[in-house]
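Bench notes, bay 3.
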Amino acid sequence: MYRILIADDEPIERKVISKKIQEFFPGQTEVFQAENGREALEIFEREKCDIVLIDIEMPGMNGLDAAERIRNADRDCSIIFLTAFDEFNYAKKAISVKALEYLLKPGSDEELTVVLEEAFRIADEGERRKISERTIEEEKREILDGAPSEEVRMNVVAEEIRRYIAQHYKDDLSLQDVAGAMRYSDAYFCKIFKKYFNRSFIVYLNELRIEKAKKMLDDAVRNIKEISSEVGYRDANYFAKVFKRLTGMTPSDYRGIALQRKQKQPDGED
């Protein structure tokens, strides 16, 4: 479960963003709120947050100073600035603390969703690194103790989850749907999914859908909007954004390159 901190001196802003996050990513986040930079630092240090959405203009310690201290304490934390001021100096400082994004208020739901999905991916990468570092020590202990690996015990469960998602990825699938099918609580399912798939549920689902879409794009006759729907995206524009984020190109560009490559292949080759 991703731990997200929202720091803004406007209570309504905090509540609106918190509500949106919980609606867009139900069961996947734990949200904390702070009303200024100092409180944000206290909560960050206490709760070990993965993601920080922070306003720049706040009384006392402002968001830029708080973000700088957060970055010094945690290289993996995704910092997302939220501000009503489009100032070049702010953007420069955001770059200096390696902020993930600089969003002007009021932002769109789509902007918030896309940047949070990217923050989830970054959090997963950090978690994979930590797991990899722990695994070496765990393997040493298992050899010495003769204890059976938990990985072996959970292989069957992981395969069941993989099979269920492969069968239902075209549907309007949520973490809660899969957790319910596996008869797990949302929190426990989220935990084991990240551990055994090395990524969050939403990242895994997006990657699977985009791989399926890439195969369909080889067919020049198929409409891109229809393909987006067939792989589970109801909004073709959102599909295009996810596709570009994962492949580096738009669906149209990918199709063009794939068709050119196909035309260059000698007869008889697939």
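Next record in the batch:
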Amino acid sequence: MSNRLTVHKDGREIYDIVMENSFERLGAEVSRLLVAERRLCIVTDSCVAPLYLESVREQLRLSCRQVDSFTFPEGEEHKNLDTVRSLYEYLIQARYDRNDMLVALGGGVVGDLCGFTAATYLRGIPFIQIPTTLLSQVDSSIGGKTGVDFDAYKNMVGAFHMPSLVYINTAVLNTLPDEQLVSGMGEIVKHGLIRNREYYHWMKEHSRRIITRDLSVCEELILESDRIKRDVVEQDPTEKGARALLNFGHTLGHGVEKLMNFQMLHGQCVAVGCAGAAYISFRRGYIREEELADILHTLKQFGLPVSLAGTGLVPEQILAATKNDKKMDSGRIRFILLHEIGEAYVDRTVTDEEMLDAVRWLMEEPGQTRL
């Protein structure tokens, strides 16, 4: 099995997204980057390293002069400038130069941190993404957005820095914890809602095979999500326009994520945010009540939360948290709403009252006054 998508910028080929069902072709793909005389440093975390570091190192040794590795503790709480500083120090002491390359082996935390380091070390060196979670395979590894958290503010320090290659091994899904698979579905359902109604209905029809990790179905799932993300990124590489659509569910979701101190996974927070954004779309008369109910059912079908009941969060605090989000535009939030399922748009007129109404609705117990 092999699938390849090429990402362009200004009509020029920038990098390939390669999908395989093992690491066996990783060395050959990296060799295409002409790295025979380069050193590669694998950046990974303490969760992924025992599973895949040696397999990846073995493959990379076939394509370059030397392979090193840097491992940091797993978890969002380590996606910060302190970890970046430690990685800078490692690279400086090892005398890495602009001809060398970093390799992000892990989920979104690893990819974001490694990408940011690559963007800023010596004013920029190349890097490769090898995403090992479903969420990173369909979202964070594609598009060149890198960054780290600053205190409790998510991704507030970052840079756009395109990878040289994204290599996806779908077999890693077999070792993925259930909650991480569910988290990835938060971004995938979002893709269908904002861009492709048929894809949204297809994933509902194949939900059981997705949940049980039928890799033939998961490959189709990942490929279509990657295609959607690729097409949006090509249209708007630096998030000046259409790329903002990918933030559907993220405005409220990031507020929840911050206040929960990252105890809810990113995709779970996005799912709650999608439910809230769909509710506002319904209240504005864009989608019908039965469509809102269908969106909630679909999210729940994949084990994703659609309620904040029992979290102890305060609606006004969530609203305040959204004001610190990087999606602010001249003091106003760029909120993503649905004209219909499969068609999202950027709205700058969503009021604080509308957001508070949505959050209060999310606070209600499912099955009571909620749909």
